Structure formats: C-alpha cells, structure tokens
Amino acid sequence: MNIMLRSTLLFFCLFGLLSCATDESNTTTADDDSNPSAVDFDRSAMLEHWADALIIPGYDQWNTELTALQMAASDFTMNPTETSLRVVREQWITAYTMWQRVAMFEMGPAERSDLRLSVNSYPTNTSQIENHILEGGYDLTLPANRTAKGFPALDYLLNGIGTTDAERLAVYTGANGTAYQQYLSDVITDLNTLSNSVLTEWQNDYRTEFISNDGASATASTDRLVNDYIFYYEKFLRAGKMGIPLGVFTGTPEPQTLEAFYYPSLGNALFLEALDATQDFFNGTPFNGTGTGPSLASYLDTLNTVTNGATLSESINEQFVTARNAVMALETFKVEIEENDPPTTMLNAYDEVQALVPLLKVDMVSAMSIRIDYVDADGD
Question: Edge-to-edge strand order for the sheet containing 27-28?
C-alpha cells in the first residue's frame, strides 16, 4: 500500500475523531441543565411501538421468507435442475435482504442465541464447509461452525462452487452431490431453527418484559436497544460492510471480506437495505411502511435538541440521505475496491456513512443521557 493511501486513510480516521468533538460542542437542548427523564415523553409507548410495529413484524416476515427458502431447497434436492437451483437462489436473496431489517435487534432472544454471528458471519470459511461435506458428522450449533453456516455459507453453496449454473448443478448431481444437497438443507434448517426460536420468544414472554422495562438506566430497554442499535450501525453496517473491505482500519483493502462475496451485485443492495432499516428505526417507521409512532426522532424533538442551527433529528435524517445517495452512486463494492487504487469514490461514500456515527453516538445519546456501554477499539 503506497504512502499516499496510508496518509489518506489516517486523515479519514482523524477526521472522524474531530467530527465527534465538534458535534458534541455544538449540540444543545432548550435547557442544557434539563433532565431527559423529566421530559414528557412516554418511553413505554415507544418500546411498545418498537416491539409491535418494527421488531416482531420484522422477525415474522424473516421467518416466513426462511420457510419459503426451506421449501425451495426441498424442491431442489428432490429435483435438482438449473431452474430449481435459481429458485433457491432467488429466495436466498429475498431472505438475506429481509435479514437486514432485523439484524440490529441483538438483545433478549437474539442475544442469547448469538443470532447475528450465527446468521451472518463473513467471510465464510469455504475449507471448513468442504471438510464438513466430505467428512460429515458436523454440528452446526457449535460456535466453531459460525463461519461455515448462515447466509454467507449459502452464498458459497449457491454461487461459489462454479462459475455458471450448469457447473454448480454438476456439483449437486455429481459423485458427492448427495452430501452437498444435505449440507445445503442443514444450513437452511439451522437458520429456520434460530428464526423460529427468536420469533416465538418475542411473541410470548419477552415482549412484555421488553416493554415493561421502561426506565432510564443502563439496564432499561431503551438504553440497551439504543446501544445495540448504534453498535450495529458502527461495527456491522459501517465497518463490516464497507470499512473493513476498504482497508480503512488496516491500510490494506480486503475485498474477500465483502458481504455476498460470491454474488457481488447483491452486496450494495444489502448495504442499502440495512441503511434504510436503521433510518426507519430512528424514525419509528412501522415495518409495513405506513403511519408513524414514537421514536428516537420524536424523542429528540421533544427534548428540542438542536445541532449547528438545525434540529438534531433533521440533521440525522439529512445525513442518512447523503450517505444513501453516495452509496447508490457506486459500482459494486467489489469492482470499486478491486479496480481502483485507491478506491477514492467508495472511500468518500464511506465518509458519509461514518458521518452518522458522531451524530448518533455523541449528540443523540448525550441529549437522552444514555451512556455508551461498549468500547470503541478500531481507532476511528
């Protein structure tokens, strides 16, 4: 990596730090000495809206798409053709896209089952997958197998074992075809088991527990979910989907770490779906996309939080739009990284995505008196 690129990346990192400091000093409420817990805002109503309009409907739809994926895989294994293989792939895309809507909710049932790591650990370990297929006797519930299952493993099994559907089908109908078919089915069954478990808990006791824990403390539902939300945005959306493949933190681009590596055109779409999901959560937009409800945005508006002359909720939404437009202008992430040295356009888009971090992690939580409960160790 040349010295100019390393200097550029260092500048981006330092700029992020300076942005945090600048945003923090320019953010005020109507009364800087006010106590957010004393403001007339119903946290319980916001928690109920989150549970009933965003989280449970999201998990329910994801579960539906995984059930359809399992049915498509069953049809494929009974009648393996190029057409039935494409049907599995199309449903994988639908289920993977739907996952982006619920990936941020890593608390309660999802936290207990390590859902995010079990569903979407990438890059996938292709050697481990091939060994499992060859040797059998694997247990996909073991933590050691997280990079050999989930959506990234399906990416390899549906797209990475050949360059054409004819080549891929030949693997499933060849000498070890039965073993490949079994592994494909087992990975999808594991996803369904995880999805069913989390959805069932939310529909039963956990919903009540989540809504009733409506206080203003580090262990209260609002504080915990806000922390999880920002952690997801910073570490999994910003860093995982863009920063790490770009080499922002190491100085060396790593396109092999991209999400949906074997189906490059999908990576950008998954990122944009995740970005839309995080903005919808911020605004309390229901899963069905209609109506409104209490949200982080309305909470900030109740606190009358202003930054740089605009309401903080407006500034955050404007930056979401700026980031989305920058990403939409890109070629596939894989092309941007592999065909440009340095990948300046994608680095610029990353800066716009990064610009949301201080707005959420410093300005928003400061206004709400929510303490960040995780350590930032990536130097940005």
Answer: 27-28, 306-307, 310-311
Whether pLDDT at 5 is above 90:
no
CA distances 53 to 109, 286, 287, 372, Å, are 18, 5, 6, 26
Is 342 in contact with 246 (CB distance < 8 Å)? no
Q: Is 151 exposed, middle or buried (0-12, 13-18, 19+ CB in 10 A)?
A: buried
The average pLDDT across 132-149 equals 98
> Regarding the domain with residue range 62-214, which homologous superfamily does it belong to in the CATH classification?
M75 peptidase, HXXE motif (1.20.1420.20)
Instruction: Indicate the pTM of the whole model.
Output: 0.90
Q: What are phi and psi of 28, to 5 degrees?
A: -135, 160
Residue 199 φ then ψ, to 5°? -60, -45
Residue spans per domain, the chain: 1-34+216-380, 62-214
Mean pLDDT of 140-144: 97
- Mean pLDDT over 87-109 rounds to 98
- Kindly report the backbone phi and psi dihedral angles of residue 293, in degrees, each rounded to the nearest multiple of 5, phi listed first: -165, 170
